Automatic annotation (TrEMBL):
It comes from the Bacteria. InterPro entries: Apiosidase-like_cat_dom, Collagen-bd_put, GH. SUPFAM superfamilies: (Trans)glycosidases. It comes from Pedobacter nyackensis. Residues 386-480 form the Putative collagen-binding domain. This is Putative collagen-binding domain of a collagenase. Residues 34-366 form the Apiosidase-like catalytic domain.
Length: 482
């Protein structure tokens, strides 16, 4: 009998033993979607996307300048850089290297070798390789737009060319671990949709290990056209650069202007569940409305507001942008877009850029101290977070407050409420367990936390943020389980 049991165990191990080595979702290496479909993981651990729009990085920077940019962003906590592979068809980089042969997107201009010392070897694509590899050294993902939407709209890319080009990209970059694909590029998915479908499907078929989304036109989101597409892993919105009174699209379905939390809320409620993010809100230092350089400029308070609004509404991260940095503007040079006057090196230190890390740190602060890649995502202070406006008493959680809007998000043991202008926060108590809870104020401007004290956890409590009520006096109320 014993021999038969041993023999059965041996046969079972031979037949099925390989399945015991299969890694659960929480152990997967690289960037993945969390088990609940809401967030990102990296090597099974929480990953908060803090992005920057370095759109013209490959075109406008030398190797040394690219190093400078990436290192600055690493130090400021950024872990994703959004960049165009082909801004134009063809594109030419700072060294004078063209991307394509005769402007044909199906014919990338590739040379033998990649020695920087030999200009006949070091080509447009080698320069991209260098920057991608340098970003990896610094723990930064490169979110690549294959070809900017204007080129497709202008009939410079056919579906057949798109397929060939996407195959080239995947063959070259599928083994780079720090790649994310942003199909599209500031365009509605309905414009030349067949090209976007071909690119998305080709990327997916040839590169199953990297995440893919679609970067849409201003005041739209990828879910309008591609939510059910098999190649789309997560949604991205571009809430855009207009004020409330400038948003002529506000009456259209799914167009919300400055209220970027509405885009996130809409995506959050879609089925099947997919993560969502605001991949292009108003840039720091860019004119309000974008095109009239005489208009006021969006500032650090504005980019903070977009960040906290969208994340608290359910986004898995946030992408910051700066007018001078995104175009790598050189002071005094011709061809500045959107009234840029400050050099990109100086703009690296614009206030908002240094404040984004506080949002990232806050959202990661409730990850259990003993969190490991092997621990379950189902019982984690990061992955169990949900938006919850029901904790706000009265009209404060409604739809029409504009800058008065309060946004709330919570996990099982904590609750965050954001106010952009320091208005009072009437809170329904008892949502977090305990007879009392611990309350504190968190400053998005400097990341400092100030204790309020222990509060009775019943009824309604009115929290009065420090300072006077004015735009930019923003605070996060934190309620923690004791």
């Amino acid at each position: 009998m014993y021999q038969r049991i041993v023999l059965f165990a041996f046969i079972s191990l031979a037949l099925f033993g390989c399945t015991s080595n299969k890694k659960p979702d929480a152990l997967k290496k690289g960037l993945h979607i969390s088990e609940n479909g809401r967030y990102f993981t990296e090597d099974g651990k929480p990953f908060f996307w803090l992005g920057d729009t370095g759109w013209l990085l490959f075109n406008k920077t030398t190797r040394e300048q690219a190093d400078q940019f990436l290192e600055d962003r690493r130090q400021k906590g950024f872990n994703v850089i959004q960049a165009m592979v082909l801004h134009t068809v063809p594109s030419v980089n700072i060294y004078g290297d063209s991307s394509l042969v005769n402007g044909d997107i199906a014919k990338p201009a590739v040379t033998e070798g990649n020695s920087f010392a030999d200009s006949t070897q070091y080509d447009f694509w080698d320069h991209i390789d260098y920057i991608v590899d340098k970003a990896k050294e610094k723990g930064i993902y490169m979110a690549l737009v294959p070809v900017w939407g204007t080129n497709v709209k202008n009939k410079k890319v056919t579906p057949a060319q798109a397929k060939s080009y996407a195959e080239f990209l995947t063959n070259r970059y599928k083994d780079k671990s720090n790649i994310i694909w942003l199909n599209g590029g500031d365009i509605k998915g309905s414009e030349v949709k067949e090209v976007w479908e071909v690119i998305g499907a080709t990327l997916r078929a040839n590169d199953p290990n990297h995440l893919i989304t679609f970067h849409p036109r201003g005041r739209t989101g990828s879910s309008e056209w591609f939510h059910d597409a098999k190649w789309l892993d997560f949604n991205m919105v571009q809430s855009g650069h207009r004020r409330y009174d400038q948003d002529t699209s506000a009456k259209e379905q799914w167009h919300y202007g400055e209220d970027n939390w509405k885009y996130i809320e809409k995506d959050y409620n879609l089925k099947p569940v997919k993560p969502t993010i605001d991949g292009e809100p108003s840039y720091e230092g860019i004119p309000q409305g974008l095109h009239d350089v005489k208009q006021p400029r969006w500032n650090d308070a504005d980019v903070r507001r977009y960040g906290y609004w969208s994340v608290f509404a359910g986004a898995f991260g946030y992408t910051y942008g700066d007018n001078s940095v995104m175009q790598f503007y050189k002071a005094g040079s011709k061809g500045a877009a959107y009234g840029a006057t400050k050099s990109w090196q100086d703009a690296l230190n614009d206030p908002g850029a240094g404040q984004m890390i506080h949002l990232k740190n806050l959202m990661l602060s409730r990850v259990p101290a003993d969190q490991t890649a092997a621990s379950t995502q189902a019982d984690n202070g990061y992955f169990d977070r949900v938006p919850d406006q029901s904790v706000i008493v009265g009209a404060a959680g409604g739809d029409n407050e504009k800058y008065n809007r309060l946004l709330a998000t919570r996990g099982k043991d904590y609750l965050f409420v954001y106010t952009y202008n320091g208005r009072n926060i009437p809170l329904k108590m008892g949502v977090i367990e305990g007879d009392q809870v611990k309350a504190s104020w968190f400053s998005p401007r400097d990341g400092k936390t100030t204790a309020i004290g222990n509060i009775d956890n019943k009824g309604t409590h009115d929290f009065d943020p420090p300072g006077e009520v004015k735009d930019g006096n923003d605070w996060v109320l934190i309620i923690d389980k004791i």
